[in-house]
Specification:
- The chain is mainly alpha-helical.
- It has four helices and no strands.
- The longest helix has 27 residues.
- The radius of gyration is 16 Å and the shape is elongated.
Length: about 120
Amino acid sequence: MRQIVSTRASLLVGAAGASAVLLGAFGAHALQSVLDEYHSELWHTAVNYHVWHALALALAVAVGGGRSRRVAIICFALGIALFSGSLYALALGAPRWTGIITPFGGLAFIIGWLALGLSLRARAD
């Protein structure tokens, strides 16, 4: 049986993937001579997690099932915003306290992966 993907979910996947590529290119080109090594590494880490979790989001949308699917989608989107977003901000000179937000994004990623696993199991049942 074919699963119907909502317009909202498909737009979220597209936005997550496209923004990861745009921010990666921005960091590699526009910020290359602006950021020092430490801030450049923060940017790189943010992009890396952003890309991988945009893919995880796509997986959750495309093949997940049950209530856990929705939890996975929300957590991956929230994780991208909080984890990668806070690292992008820190790389651009946000106050150091902004780093307090980063672990909440990491926690959202962890919950997202657990929910994705449950949603794949729900789909198999």
